[in-house]
Task: inverse folding
């Protein structure tokens, strides 16, 4: 009797095991056929407004050495290199597929709003006010505000106090965060269209100092290394530079953030990243302290073809 | 598993006692014929049929493909894309056949043995083993644990086979389970974190099921199970074959063409053939295009959308949707760059 019941128990166990294995196999088969649950890079590309465009239009600065400069018909600089990396990641490889739109500081937001540019990579500080008008992916760089003075004044302008003195004419570019920051510190500044105009003005004796992001100033310092000096002043705020995207295109913002993060992750693993290459080729030699890529914020989880590659 | 020389007997009495020798031999020969026909014929027919699908149903395009895709390329292309399906079919037949075979002695003598059992009678053990090996290297890692109960069932490996005595047997089993748990622990934690219940179940349940899967089934279950599973395996093969038939046999590329100076165009499609004059492209959206060789400026290989992963899980840095072969391949060539042209051109 005992042997019989154990025999029976065994067959019930076998039946159960066979049935469960078959159902599990069926579930596996169904799982294999369903659509990927996570959005992919390709899905986002199709959602974004750049899908199907023959060329991508990227707004950059044309007059900021080391960041974005048009020289002999070719755009160069850190922002331009980052723009090229993002463009090639989005499927626009090579300069024949990129249309660089030269933008002045104050034209960056209207260019995105008006559809003149698909992206803006132009020392664009991510601020709360701007986030109401455009979307940002990033940051891809953290910079601070500095002041650049000609050698003739380098012993006289050392502090923010010195900037407030009425005998000095301080110059900055319009629509920039620097303009607001100077105002906050009660520094009366003369506002021009481009930082380059300030530098030109100083060389011609019309202004005495220029205030802007350290990256932009480093660019002009690289042009006139014997004429200027950057003075470290405690403005206290750091600027996070981001890539501007039209506010109506969250898919494109996600893609740009995703590719910035891809570069960030490469850098963290100690590999050479597109960011590091761009930095070393442009800003790197001119910065007082070496920089690393900051971690991009709000990075979406996207599926891509190279997800299966080994991570180490 | 090798073909038994005589009808299966086991204490209860000869199962096929009513069959005379010549009848048995004839049945065996017929079963062998049907089995090998299925194993060789199905892939052959599939590989030709899919050419028609790939050509977009156009007769002339199909003929162009037939003329340019050699039989060896066709078979190799088919095996690359269908090895998984083929091994799944074989493993299902072997596992079910073996379970039914040990149970069949409970059926009244003279009853026709189920198809899978007859197949198992004639299949040599090395072929069963080869089927499992093919599955081992081609199945996605996530589904690989299912191979454990299938293997245990196909070879009827009861826990008693590990050791005759209870204590060493339990110790051996415990060691096996601890090893399995150690291998998968990080993946299981990650699956739990991501809420991937099915993945969790697929990784944990199969080894436990393997403990109970050997042994005969109750007599009442055998007949319905035999007919249902035969139909189910057939249905599964057809269902799984549809995507395989539509998987392209030619590699996907994007070709940059310059028809006039300064004007470039990207064509997404499969290269059928290249000669001195033309590159013949089967465009992804349909139609054949002859591009003069001197107008081709660049060509890149692109992944297809079906290759996008569904899960974000890894087992010891092997992606769960890779097979062992693919996973090892990725270690040989770890960097896989997607060319920009693949992203926008459609």
Result:
């Amino acid at each position: 009797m005992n042997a019989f019941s154990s025999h029976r128990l065994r067959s019930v166990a076998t039946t159960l095991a066979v049935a469960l294995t078959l159902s599990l196999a069926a579930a596996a088969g169904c799982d294999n056929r369903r659509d990927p649950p996570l959005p992919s890079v390709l899905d986002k590309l199709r959602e974004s407004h750049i899908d199907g465009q023959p060329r991508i239009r990227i707004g950059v600065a044309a007059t900021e050495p080391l960041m974005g400069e048009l020289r002999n018909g070719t755009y160069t600089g850190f922002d331009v290199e980052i723009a090229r990396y993002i463009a090639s990641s989005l499927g626009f490889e090579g300069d024949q597929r990129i249309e660089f739109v030269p933008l002045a500081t104050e034209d960056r937001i209207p260019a995105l709003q008006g559809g003149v540019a698909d992206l803006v990579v132009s020392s664009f500080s991510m601020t709360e006010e701007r986030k109401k008008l455009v979307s940002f992916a990033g940051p891809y760089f953290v910079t601070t505000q500095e002041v650049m003075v000609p050698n003739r004044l380098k012993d006289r302008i050392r502090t923010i106090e010195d900037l407030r003195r009425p005998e000095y004419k301080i110059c900055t570019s319009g629509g920039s965060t620097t303009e607001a920051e100077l105002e906050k510190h009660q520094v009366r500044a003369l506002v021009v269209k481009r930082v380059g105009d300030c530098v030109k003005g100083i060389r011609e004796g019309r202004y005495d100092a220029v205030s802007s992001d350290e990256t932009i100033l480093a660019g002009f310092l690289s042009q006139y290394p014997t004429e200027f000096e950057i003075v470290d002043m405690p403005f206290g705020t750091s600027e996070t530079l981001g890539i501007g995207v039209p506010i109506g295109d969250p898919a494109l913002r996600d893609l740009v953030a995703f590719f910035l993060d891809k570069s960030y992750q490469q850098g963290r693993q100690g590999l050479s990243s597109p960011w590091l290459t761009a930095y070393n080729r442009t800003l790197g030699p001119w910065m007082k302290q070496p920089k690393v890529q900051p971690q991009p914020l709000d990075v979406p989880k996207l599926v891509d073809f190279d997800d299966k590659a080994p991570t180490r | 598993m090798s073909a038994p020389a005589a009808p299966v007997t086991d204490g209860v009495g000869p199962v096929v006692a009513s069959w005379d020798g010549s009848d048995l031999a004839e049945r065996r020969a017929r079963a062998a014929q049907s089995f090998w026909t299925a194993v060789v014929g199905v892939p052959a027919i599939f590989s030709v049929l899919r050419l028609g699908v790939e050509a977009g149903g156009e007769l002339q395009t199909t003929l162009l493909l037939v003329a340019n895709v050699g039989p060896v390329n066709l078979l190799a292309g088919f095996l690359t894309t269908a090895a998984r399906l083929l091994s799944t079919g074989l493993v299902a037949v072997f596992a079910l056949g073996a379970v039914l075979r040990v149970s069949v002695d409970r059926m009244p003598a003279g009853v026709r043995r189920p198809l899978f059992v007859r197949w198992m009678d004639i299949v040599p053990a090395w072929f069963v083993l080869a089927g499992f090996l093919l599955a081992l290297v081609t199945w996605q890692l996530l589904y690989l644990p299912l191979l454990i109960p299938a293997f245990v069932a196909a070879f009827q490996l009861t826990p008693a086979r590990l050791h005759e005595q209870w204590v060493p047997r339990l110790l051996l089993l415990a060691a096996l389970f601890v090893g399995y748990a150690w291998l998968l622990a990080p993946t299981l934690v990650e699956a739990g974190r991501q809420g991937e219940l099915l993945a969790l179940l697929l990784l944990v349940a199969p080894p436990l099921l393997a403990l109970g899967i050997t042994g005969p089934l109750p007599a009442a279950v055998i007949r319905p199970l035999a007919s249902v599973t035969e139909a189910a395996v057939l249905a599964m093969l057809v269902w799984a074959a549809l995507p395989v038939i539509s998987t392209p046999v030619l590699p996907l590329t994007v070709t940059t063409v310059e028809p006039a100076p300064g004007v470039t165009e990207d064509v997404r499609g499969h290269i059928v053939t290249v000669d001195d004059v033309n590159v013949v492209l089967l465009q992804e959206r349909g139609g054949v295009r002859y591009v003069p060789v001197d107008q081709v400026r660049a060509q890149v290989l692109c992944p297809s959308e079906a290759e996008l992963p569904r899960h974000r899980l890894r087992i010891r840095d092997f992606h769960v949707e890779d097979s062992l072969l693919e996973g090892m391949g990725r270690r040989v060539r770890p960097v896989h760059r997607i060319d920009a042209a693949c992203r926008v051109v459609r």
User: Anything to note?
Assistant: Chain B touches chain A through 60 residues (CB under 8 Å).
